[in-house]
Amino acid sequence: MLKLEGVSSGYNGKEVLHSISLEVTQPAIYVVLGPNGAGKTTLFRTVAGVIKPHDGTVTLDGRDLYSSGDVRRDIGYLSHFSALPEEMTVFQALRFYGSIEQGSVEAAIDSLGLRNLANKKVSDLSQGQKKRASIAKLFLRERKLYLLDEPTSNLDPVVAKEVRDILLSLSKERYLLYSSHNLYEAQEIGDFIILVRDGKLAFYGRKEELRTGAYRIGVKASADLSALFPSGRYAKEYFVLGVGGHEEVGEVVKNIVAAGIMVYEVREIGNPLEDLFTGAK
Amino acid sequence: MVIGLAMGVLLTVTLDFAGRVGTVTQSGSSVNVAAVMGSIIVPIGALVGLISATPVFFLFVYDKNAGVLEYLLAVGMTQREVFSGYLKAALVLSLIVMAPGALLNFVLSPNGLLYGAESVAISLVTGLADVALVTVLMTGFSSMQRRPSGMNSPLGVGVGIVPVFPSLLLGVVLGPSLFWVEGAIAVAIFAIAAALLLSLDRMVSREKFLP
Lengths: 281, 211
Hints:
The structure holds 2 protein chains of 2 kinds. Helices cover 29% and strands 30% of the residues of chain A. Chain A is α/β, with parallel strands linked by helices. In chain A, strand 1 (2-11) and strand 2 form a beta hairpin. By secondary structure, chain B is mainly α. Chain B has one domain. Chain B has helices at 2-21, 33-38, 41-66, 68-74, 79-107, 113-144, 153-164, 167-174, 178-203, and strands at residues 23-26, 29-32. The longest helix of chain B is centred in the middle third of the chain and has 32 residues, at 113-144.
């Protein structure tokens, strides 16, 4: 479906992405992970056809992305910016883009549950509402590939979850590339992980194959925890033990409390995300 | 529209006055005041058109900063197509403002319908040509700025007056040939605007459209 072969691209002659090759062949959510400055946005802009690669080719179903504008219309791209004219209502803004893309405004409004916001000015929308309205542009017509560049950034956790749930429901049987610098978000919604580090492809595969390194926590408690967790050890005032992931932390705390021991503090000791992003494993 | 109508009334009154004055003779030279005053319609018309097109210059800057231009590239448009869209908007806007004033001038022309038709045609054509040139220049320039703000719009108006300013003097020198010379100037301005528009794809890279 989507194929990148030796793609290098960047801005003003400076290369940001270096010879990236990958292929997206099955409908799924592909989470593009990487620290800030890794090249995630540049990758998305290159695949969306916003910037041309210096080297290499990007093809969609075998068609070169720059062979015609029609190929790029099969890709829906959500950037960091809402790209919605602030003085227009939601309906007017979608109709504006709908006229360019021969899309259906009604379908887009219904997909994102914007019926009650249709006559509201974009400038009067909350952050979460603006994000939904912005995502609605992508669903003016059916596309082969959807690119979402950090769609939950700058959203509070509740609204971010709402947006993720909407995207999950809309992603069935679709090809969706979703960028994030949040590993936990990636693990929650992604099927495949594309890890970009320093402009290069560091990992591409199923999320189960991604090893993040040990996730260690430090616990301050009212009694010695050595008997409860033989694999752990004391480091200064904290009892340090390794867990499979952040979802296991609650279980650890539950076990300690069940043993009649009070928990004063739980904290991360070493962030596996940092290891992943810096390549230190 | 109000501005256009107001300019039309002002010009009509001016031409009527000039017509009544007739010919002024000094030191053996005669000057047809009506012809001289009639040539004012060209730069005034262009000025009205440029002023009415300035919202488009601001809109381009706003859209660039809001990510609209980036999105238009993503949906398959080329830089030229994007520039053309703003050009069309500027031309339509300026025509809406210029046309009523020009029409009023034609209807009330004190110097005969033929002269009125010629001056209206020339003022509209030259005005639109000028708007086209300045719009292409201003949007191209704004796209190349790292942080465009639209505050250079008055510069655009100033630049736009330069090609049409000679019309103020041409009426004195050329007399009846003024129509053809000003027509040629308008065509030349359109040609330059078209050439610039066609070359913008090469001059302005896609990256320049990013916020």
